[in-house]
Amino acid sequence: MMRSLFSGVSGLANNMVRMDVIGNNVANVNTIAYKASRVTFEETMTQMLKGSTAPMGTLGGSNPTQVGTGARLGTIDSIFTQGSMEATGIDTDLGIQGRAFFVVSDGTNQFYSRSGSFQLDGRGNLVNPANGFTLQGFSYNRVTDQYDNLPEAIKLPLGEVEPAKATGVLSFRGNFDADSEPRGTRTGSAVLWGGTGSPVAMDTLLDDMKADPGGVLDLLTVGDTIAYSATVGGNPIGGNLTVDAVSTMGDLVTAIQTSLNSVSGVAGITVSLDSNGRIQVATPDGLGKRAEVTGLVIQAEDPTLVPRDDFNGLVALTDTQSARDASVFIDESTVYDSLGFSHVIRTEFTRLLGANQFTWAATVDDGTTPILQGGTGKVTFNGDGSFNGLFFDAAGDVIPTKLSISPTTGAKTPLEVELDPGVPGGFAGMTLVRAPATLAATSDGFSKGTATDFRIDRTGTVISIFSNGVTRPVARVALSEFVNPSGLVRYGDNLFQASTNSGKALVGQAGGAVEATVFSGSLEQSNVDLAREFTNMILAQRGFQASARVITTSDEVLTELINLKR
Predict the structure, then answer these.
(1) pLDDT reported for residue 400
(2) CB 55: neighbour CB atoms within 10 A?
(3) Which residues have a Cβ under 8 Å from the Cβ of 203 and sit 6 or more positions away?
(4) 116-130, 197-211, 250-264, 539-553: lowest mean pLDDT where?
(5) Which domain range does residue 103 map to?
């Protein structure tokens, strides 16, 4: 009977331990990244009452006869299932999706944690605010453009100055609209009539013009002055013609045409009369808005400077078709010299008619800072719209390869800027397809800035943000994995330590040696399942009650045995 007493006692002890574990799990249901525990039991040593026998002859064998002496605690296991993520909006809060752990240090020893509730201390270190342990990471080396191999405390360089960087490359990306052939303008007046009752012609005398086919009202008389003005590509022009006895419509047409073509860089604008006696103004295809005629006004005044309104109303130009200038693409990009002064490079691309080619011309600022070389050239595209090549015009006996600018700011000179239009045959740089124009250029230079903010991406890369718009990596959060995470030793403060059975920590970076993802602004929640814990609580309670009944029943049997002596 003593065996049953001890078996009952072991049952009480084991179920009390199980309740301890359940109670700890329930208490930590809201603990950040807490990993639940579970209890397993195993039977203790059994007493052999009779051994087994083998079959012999016609007799069968017999099984062993054993009596157990109760149960004992087997293991208390940590369950490392993934907890759900809760968004906090705090950039320094980090959560891990995967099997990895954060690495923190007290300056001497390394610890491991799933809890990512970090904050900045007075030195800019990311630390666990509960104990001051620093979050470990791989610092970014700007000289080698690589991350260090040994983890150290992550320190954010808030307030650090980023010196100015001179522009070295101007990268062009985007599309030229293939449907970009430039068009001209078409303008027409009302019908003008000659003295014969027919529409005017080039040889019609100006003083014979009438208001209508059968009219008797003269529109112009000898001595009147015809004044005309217009805007050609945004440039104003004007002139006048005095009517005499031999002045014809051809004289007026020629005078207006000469004035319209007097604008620098514009030629080919035509002024004519159609067969219906309408004044026609046409700009040639290929010049686009550079030769667009707008606001053409033709007025007649008599010698006393009174406008001849009857004439002015008839020659008001209508039916205007606006010029399209889609073949001229302009990009204005800011580049920086070695002192951080900005300069605007204006690059104008003009399509050549009938070809997948553009000429380009670059100027700097308002033209006061000269481009020493490489200011013009040509861009060509393949038949499928992919980029073919960008070429520089020769400067004397030299074909430049870069834009060369001489700043007047005291910076290093010359400032040489390489043009990067993309890879020949590719579509990642400049393209020429029928789609809206999206051309834009970006510079790799910048002015001086100060670190004002930071962010952490899903690879655990800590990125510093400067006031000049520059971003650069500072470090990568170190993560560790274990062959047997259940072998880790709980240290307290949501920390674990490696043990002989956990295996050595494999320390690396998210997305690299460690298969995990880091979520900034989120915290992992406890993986305690309350429904399971309450069910286990009932089982532990019933197990405890049953073991107690074994003890009380054994006691009653022993009491009866003792009473036999009476």
Answers:
(1) 86
(2) 9
(3) 248, 249, 250
(4) 197-211
(5) 85-163+450-524
